[in-house]
Write a structure and sequence with these properties.
- The structure is a single chain.
- Helices cover about 55% and strands about 10% of the residues.
- The protein is mostly helical and about 100 residues long.
- The chain has one domain.
- The chain has a two-stranded antiparallel ribbon.
- The relative contact order is 0.20.
Length: about 100
């Protein structure tokens, strides 16, 4: 897997991180891709094996969703979203070295 494919994977996953609600508090949702979603994006079985089927995958999703709990209550929703998307980069970066 080359660096461009890793960057494309990160972008795909970050785009699936969204703000769930803003009031009464900010929540984050992650639309988990399926194997067919990866295939539709042109990713092969290798990407599925090192992401969707990886031991750390569910931990990453939990950390994404729990992001609002680690920021100050007055943090802007867009900033919370940015932090949640950074979680994707950090997880993939640690495992795939983009």
């Amino acid at each position: 897997m080359d660096k461009n494919e890793i960057k494309r994977l990160i972008k795909l996953l970050q785009n699936r991180v969204k703000i769930g609600q803003i009031k009464p508090e900010v929540t984050i949702v992650f639309s988990e891709p399926s194997e067919s979603d990866f295939a539709a994006e042109g990713f092969g079985e290798e990407v599925i094996a090192i992401s969707l089927k990886a031991d750390w995958w569910s931990e990453m999703i939990a950390d994404i969703i729990e992001t609002p709990g680690f920021v100050e209550p007055e943090t802007a929703p867009e900033q919370v979203l940015g932090y949640a998307r950074d979680v994707v980069y950090e997880y993939i970066g640690k495992r795939l070295n983009p």
